[in-house]
Amino acid sequence: MPKKLEGKIALVTGGSRGIGAAIAKSLAADGASVAITYAKDSGSASAVVKAIEGNGGKAIAIQADSIDAAAITDAVTKAAETLGGLDILVNNAGTAIPKAFEEATLEELDRVLDINVRGVFIATQAALKHIKEGGRIIMIGSCVGERMMTPGLAAYAATKGAVKMFSQGLSREVGGRGITVNTVQPGPIDTDLNPASGDWAVPQKALTALNRFGTVNEVAALVAFLAGPEAAYITGANMTIDGGTNA
């Protein structure tokens, strides 16, 4: 029985660790050939590729910092040329610099905007030159892009709100090509950057209805669903996976 993403080609930005790595592995398990980008950590990126290949999948890793416009565009082109096209783009690369807004430097604000918003614009524009009829664009937003309860993340929340509205707007432009555009909005997810055992974990967990952090595989499962054929009539949607944080 063919896998649901057999013959599809996916690009996951920031796919060397955390949520991105789980998404890359999940799409590959469903049959897609997967390219991932990474900023610096080539060891983690090659570990993801090896894990996918070890399960019989096909994957490549491309070094491209999402702050570098030329590098992002080149990575999209390289993925399409190496793997033979592009069907699925997952804009996962992102960053947060938690601190009081009044204390944030212009450099920090620029970095958050450049990676979380500008990088998404650039990768999406480059990918749309390659994405075929029936393609999928999936943004990794955040539950704070819709409802904000955490001091220290005002600028980050603004970027994720921007991604949410970009996704909704873009869905209107590419719907005629059968391309869907959706945003997945995770809440507290247990990763290296936001460990369930970290200092910030106690208040985050208290805000959830399920009283726990989510796992990267739970987020990846939702992304894989949106990438698959069953989700063909879902577009312009914001799907929150936050354990009830925003309930």
Largest sheet properties? 7 strands, parallel
Q: What is the CA–CA distance across the termini? A: 39 Å
Helix content: 40-55%
The overall strand count is 7
How many whole angstroms does the radius of gyration measure?
17 Å
Q: How would you name the CATH homologous superfamily?
A: NAD(P)-binding Rossmann-like Domain
Give the integer mean of the pLDDT values. Answer: 97
Low-pLDDT parts are: none
Widest sheet: strand order?
A: 3-2-1-4-5-6-7
Predict the CATH topology. Rossmann fold
Give your account of this protein's structure.
- The mean pLDDT is 97.
- By secondary structure, this protein is of the alpha/beta class.
- It contains seven helices and seven strands, in the order E-H-E-H-E-H-E-H-E-H-E-H-H-E.
- Helices cover 41% and strands 17% of the residues.
Layout of strands and helices, then pairs:
Blueprint (H helix, E strand, L loop, with lengths): L8 E4 L5 H12 L3 E6 L3 H13 L4 E5 L5 H15 L2 E6 L14 H22 L3 E10 L13 H21 L5 E7 L14 H7 L8 H12 L10 E4 L6
Helix pairs in contact: 1-2, 1-7, 3-4, 4-5
